[in-house]
Amino acid sequence: MKEMYYWQAIQEAMAEEMERDRRVFLLGEDIAEYGGAFGVTRGLLEKFGKHRIVNTPISEPGIVGLATGAALKGLRPIVEIMFMDFMTLCSDQILNHAAKYAYMYAGMVNVPLVIRTPAGGRRAYGPTHSQSLESWFMRVPGLKVVAPSDPADAKGLLKTAIRDDNPVLFVEHKMLYAVKGPVPKKEYLIPFGQAAIRRSGNDVTIVTYSEMVPRALRTAEKLSEENIDAEVIDLRTLAPLDLPAVFASVKKTGRVLIAEEGWKTGGVGAEISAAIGENVLEYLEAPIRRVAAKDVHIPSSDVLEKLVLPDENDIYDAAMEIMGG
After folding, report:
1. What is the pLDDT along the chain (325 residues), one digit of tens a residue?
2. 235, exposed or middle or buried, with CB in 10 Å at 0-12, 13-18, 19+?
3. Residue in 149, 161, 229, 162 with CA at minimum distance from that of residue 195
4. At 310, is the secondary structure helix, strand, or coil?
5. Is residue 317 helix, strand or coil?
6. What is residue 50's three-state secondary structure?
7. Are the C-beta atoms of 158 and 7 separated by less than 8 Å?
8. Which of 20, 10, 86, 87 lies closest to 42, judged by CA?
9. Which residues are annotated as catalytic?
10. What is the distance in angstroms between the CA of the first residue and the CA of the last residue of the chain?
11. Are the C-beta atoms of 262 and 132 separated by less than 8 Å?
12. pTM for the full predicted model
């Protein structure tokens, strides 16, 4: 194992795949000389040249449209969209084109396209640069949605995404770029649709993903001081969802809360709550609780932002409520 930052793990995954397969190339706004909005692609231009590290005009629909066409012609593009908020601009290219072509042409064509995008708040970037829109995209047939929580998963899941023959939305929380952790030295891939149990427990299940995972783990340690044994499940991919892992944990603990940074209404937690209700309702010993952002725009003020976005205190309070504390 070696220690790497989250952003380094993402960069290493792309570099290794570009060395392995000459069809892989990168395109996005300021990804070449500047290195992208958060420096993830810094240095790749010198290594792979301007024909494979391609700066684009400021036009998200044009970027994804170009990448979709390249993928249809046999290349394997990796797009960087500077902020997830800007995904709304290219959503037509994703929803109505990239995600549908394999279906519309009866599997005779593929769209091996990866769209990387930083998401989430906690940097006081305001309402147009801080959103978590993954639940919008997880309901699109033909589109896979990935949201890793640590460097090792970031690398293994991104390599899987690049080799996938279908479009993948790869969501990177901004606050994770500076997180450091162990990454295997040998090549590895992490399959989609397999959640990870980050902490085993018997009293309550906390289902979460991305930057909420370390928050859930810290909360679980605090709950242990109250003799509450929490199990933490990291979903890792939102489409496909590993619902069997969630159901198995619910059958064991009988209590569940879902923690996400996105808005509560129509969120990831809503989908998982419904699935639990449809499949393992009889195992529940307490109502399901959801911890999420308040249904308002993300403020620019860091003080107000903290009031809107969920944190460890919200997870703790929800867990204590479920446990009757």
Report:
1. 999 999 999 999 999 999 999 999 999 999 999 999 999 999 999 999 999 999 999 999 999 999 999 999 999 999 999 999 999 999 999 999 999 999 999 999 999 999 999 999 999 999 999 999 999 999 999 999 999 999 999 999 999 999 999 999 999 999 999 999 999 999 999 999 999 999 999 999 999 999 999 999 999 999 999 999 999 999 999 999 999 999 999 999 999 999 999 999 999 999 999 999 999 999 999 999 999 999 999 999 999 999 999 999 999 999 999 998 6
2. buried
3. 149
4. coil
5. helix
6. coil
7. no
8. 10
9. 60, 129
10. 41
11. yes
12. 0.97
Residue corresponding to tokens 């911890």: 291
- Give Cα separations from 95 to 83, 98, 134, 169 (angstroms): 18, 7, 13, 11
Q: Are 40 and 6 in contact (CB under 8 A)?
A: no
Q: Give 257's strand partners.
A: 206, 289
How many residues are recorded in the chain? Answer: 325
Q: Kindly compute the dihedral angle of the four CA atoms of residues 109, 55, 18, 240, in this order, to the nearest 10 degrees.
A: -50
Residue corresponding to tokens 């679980």: 220
The whole-angstrom separation of Cα 40 and Cα 178 is 11
In the block, tokens 């149990």 appear at: 197
**How far is residue 127's CA from residue 289's CA, in Å, rounded to a whole number?**
26
In 10 A of CB 19, how many CB atoms?
A: 11
What does the alpha-carbon distance between residue 256 and residue 246 come to, in Å, rounded to a whole number? Answer: 9
